[in-house]
Amino acid sequence: MSRITTVTDDIANIEQTELFTAIKSKLGIVPNFLRIFANSPDALTAFLGFYHIAGNGSLDAATRERIALTLAQKNECGYCLSAHTAIGSKAGLNKAEINSNRSGDSQDAKAAVAVKFARSLVDHMGEVTTGEIQELHDAGFTDADIVEIITHTGINILTNILSKASRVEIDFPRVDLNQAA
To answer: Cα separation of 37 and 154, whole Å?
Structure first.
């Protein structure tokens, strides 16, 4: 059971209802973690702005999901791991790739560099090396791509923290943090 109110449709105020309607029009559902965010409509609006920016940039959906999977596993966030396993599957990631991502790697050589970098950002609180930035450039990532990898890392840390702190109820097929996909 969530430790922070999960704003349901029946208790949502006008502002929350409008946000839920917008979310439903894009996603078809309102995931529980967004219902937790809705306790502060301003926080939810800010998150949705970042989510829009991150989802419309140069990184492909599969790479975004690979980053989310590696960080969910690293940060031991069962909600995010479950959500991004489902979303990653829809983005074309197979079980072997998802398991690779969870271990901080990828079967795709270019994506592996992005995943490794995202983990390094978390491990070193942003204090990455010039060599790590160069490795991204060498793999074909532009400066815009690198900024997006950093943005995705930050967004995922935020969702991991919110999900863990609130103990939001998982509303995706549950994935065990300790077992392969």
So the answer is: 16
Q: How many C-beta neighbours within 10 Å does residue 14 have?
A: 8
CA distance to 67, 148, 163, per residue, from 155 (Å): 10, 10, 12
Block residue for tokens 């103990």: 167
For the chain, domain boundaries: 14-55, 61-166
Selected from 3.40.50.1820, 1.20.1290.10, 3.30.1330.60, 3.40.630.30, the CATH number assigned to the domain covering 61-166 reads: 1.20.1290.10
pLDDT at residue 51, as a whole number: 82
**38 vs 111: CA distance, rounded Å:** 33
CB proximity list for 76: less than 8 A, separation 6 or greater: 164, 177
Burial of 84 (0-12, 13-18, 19+ CB in 10 A): buried
Q: Which residues of the chain have pLDDT under 70?
A: 181
pLDDT per position as a tens digit, 24-74: 998 899 999 999 999 999 999 999 998 887 778 899 999 999 999 999 999
